[in-house]
Amino acid sequence: MKIMTPKPFYFDKGEKAVLLLHSFSGTSNDMRLLGRALERNNYSVYAPMFIGHGTREPLDILELGSPDKWWQQTKSAIGFLEMQGKKQISVFGLSLGAIFATKALEEIPGIVAGGVFGSPLYTTNFEEIRKAFMTYSKKVYSFQQGLTEVEIDSKIRVVDTKIDSMLTDIRKTTVGVNKNLAEIKRPYFIGQGTSDKLVDPDAAKIVAQKVETSQLHLYDAGHVLTINSAHKQLESAVLNFLENN
């Protein structure tokens, strides 16, 4: 079976643009359904790929990426859309991407609106995120031809030694973003699955209280709202949010 390498995508459709930021163990592919839905409604859509992602080596995320680098990429992505002549730019993020989408709304004046899906803000325990990344790593290595069980176990042990440092850095970044939530004065969409196992679903309600312009949308679904059973509901809600703000 041929495995297609994920790639960033840019749909150049209209003057209004939406930036979509993916998750910690995800890729731009997780944003494609939402991207196409927005494109059909005359929005230009850009979904970049965070450094370290989209490869067959999970360690790339831990060794090549960092919150600082991903934030710089977020700013560069907004700059790209501005260079394309887009006048109204909104930014949304899934999980890890939610951190930087929120930070952009806090710090970049040109953003008109935005929001988050399955946000880790105000989630204090990252243990489930850790477990999910370890599971993701095992799955990626198991699909690689030529790797023995011993080699896979060896790689997993290396991931296990590096993951905590990265999660600590991400948690520190969320704390900084949390402190400035009250600074957000533009429309802020919060999408949260009520059966989310990776982040605390109740944390979304705390964020909603902190951001006076927020609109909280709860879904009977798990973490990855952009591709799970709630994705059509989410697409409709995001489109309605953009059209009315």
Extended strand count: 7
Q: Give, in order, the helices and strands.
A: EEHEHHEHEHHEHEH
User: How much is the radius of gyration in Å?
Assistant: 17 Å
CATH architecture: 3-Layer(aba) Sandwich
Query: What would you call the shape?
Result: globular
CATH superfamily annotation = Alpha/Beta hydrolase fold, catalytic domain
> What level of helicity do the residues show?
40-55%
SS element count, helices: 8
Structural category is alpha/beta
**CATH domain fold name:** Rossmann fold
- Overall tally of domains: 1
Mean pLDDT, nearest integer?
96
How is the largest sheet built, in terms of strand order?
1-3-2-4-5-6-7
Pfam families: Hydrolase_4
GO molecular function: carboxylic ester hydrolase activity
Protein name: Carboxylesterase
Domain Serine aminopeptidase S33: 15-221
Question: Could you explain how this protein is built, in words?
Answer:
- With 245 residues, this protein is α/β, with parallel strands linked by helices.
- The chain has one domain: Rossmann fold (3-Layer(aba) Sandwich).
- It is built from 8 helices and 7 strands; from the N terminus they run ββαβααβαβααβαβα.
- A 7-stranded mixed beta sheet has the order 1-3-2-4-5-6-7, sandwiched between helices.
- Strand 2 (16-21), helix 1 and strand 3 form a beta-alpha-beta unit.
- Helix 1 (32-40) packs across helix 8 (231-243), helix 4 (96-107) runs parallel beside helix 6 and helix 5 runs antiparallel to helix 6 (149-179).
- Residues 15-221 form the Serine aminopeptidase S33 domain.
